[in-house]
Write a structure and sequence with these properties.
Length: 307
């Protein structure tokens, strides 16, 4: 298997046609077809189904494409960093659950970077993707949380992925609602108080397990559920409708207006932290990001107990 074959695989999947991919890469169609057939023979799978309308990825091909993109991304970053005669780029890649403090720390690092060449990546993504990004070195660090419900499952996933969890802080579980919500004036909320209202939660993609939920008590059955993939949608839902979400109580800057965080009457706490690959040796920029995480968290009064 070669990087060239993987690049061909990605190009064909993007164009949906071997001929179109060949034209974009300035190679012959026969060379492209031969490279893919050799890849299929080597791996013992069929990558594409071919028809008069073009090519379509098989299930095995779709899985291989995911790995191929990760390998090529890492290869490109390695080339950019170590190629002779090139100025070294500062690089930082973060995968995180949808937390304000991880974004703010990222912004602080970017704004304070003195280099005129850098490549920063922030991925707000599903829990399973965070673990996989760190496992494959796609990201330097991953931000997520543990509680008594998900801890056993996630710690096993960490061990399988060769990553270690480092706690940042513990937070009392809060309910987020809009300021005009019927529960907004309460000083504390019980789980049964939430039953009449829609529950908002971040969609977890293929790893749609209760244990991978970003919201505590996601395993409790609710008749009305709304799932989404970005914090902007959550803010709009909370300010416009009478639903709720459950999180740390740490409000982002855009959520301070129109949204209320109310403590949930439970014994559960969220232990928020970061994961890093056991073989990663953090560089200056990653250490700076971790330091900024601690600073942003320390400035927030909603964090009940720090680790």
């Amino acid at each position: 298997m070669t990087l060239q074959q993987l690049r061909y695989l990605i190009a064909i999947s993007e164009h949906g046609s071997i001929n179109a991919a060949a034209q974009s890469l300035y190679v012959s169609q026969s060379n492209l077809s031969t490279a893919i057939k050799e890849l299929e023979r080597e791996l013992g799978i069929t990558v594409f189904t071919r028809s008069n309308r073009g090519v379509t990825l098989t299930n095995d091909g779709t899985e291989l494409l995911g790995y191929a993109r990760q390998v090529i991304e890492q290869a490109d970053m390695m080339e950019a960093r170590y190629a002779r005669g090139r100025t070294e780029y500062m690089h930082l890649a973060v995968s995180t659950q949808h937390y304000y403090f991880s974004l703010q720390a990222f912004i602080n690092v970017a704004e304070g970077c003195a280099s005129d060449k850098y490549d920063f990546i922030l991925r707000e993504c599903a829990t399973g993707q965070i673990i996989d990004d760190v496992r494959t070195f796609r990201s330097d660090i991953g931000i997520l949380y543990l509680d008594s419900f998900n801890s056993r499952v996630l710690k096993k996933a960490f061990a399988d992925a060769g990553v270690t969890f480092f706690p940042l802080f513990e937070a009392r579980v809060h309910v987020f609602v809009g300021e005009h919500h019927p529960l907004a004036s309460q000083s504390i909320v019980k789980l049964e108080d939430l039953a009449p209202y829609p529950r908002y939660s971040f969609e977890q993609g293929q790893t749609n397990s209760f244990y991978y939920s970003e919201e505590p008590f996601g395993h409790l059955r609710r008749d009305r559920n709304i799932r989404f993939s970005d914090r902007g949608t959550l803010t709009n839902l909370l300010t416009s409708f009478n639903g709720y979400t459950i999180s740390t109580g740490v409000l982002s800057s855009e959520m301070h207006s129109g949204i209320v965080a109310i403590p949930l009457d439970v014994d559960e706490h969220m232990q928020v932290g970061y994961i890093m690959h056991n073989e990663r040796r953090p560089g200056e920029l990653l250490l700076r990001y971790i330091d900024e995480l601690h600073k942003v968290i320390a400035e927030n009064p909603s964090v009940s107990a720090r680790v």
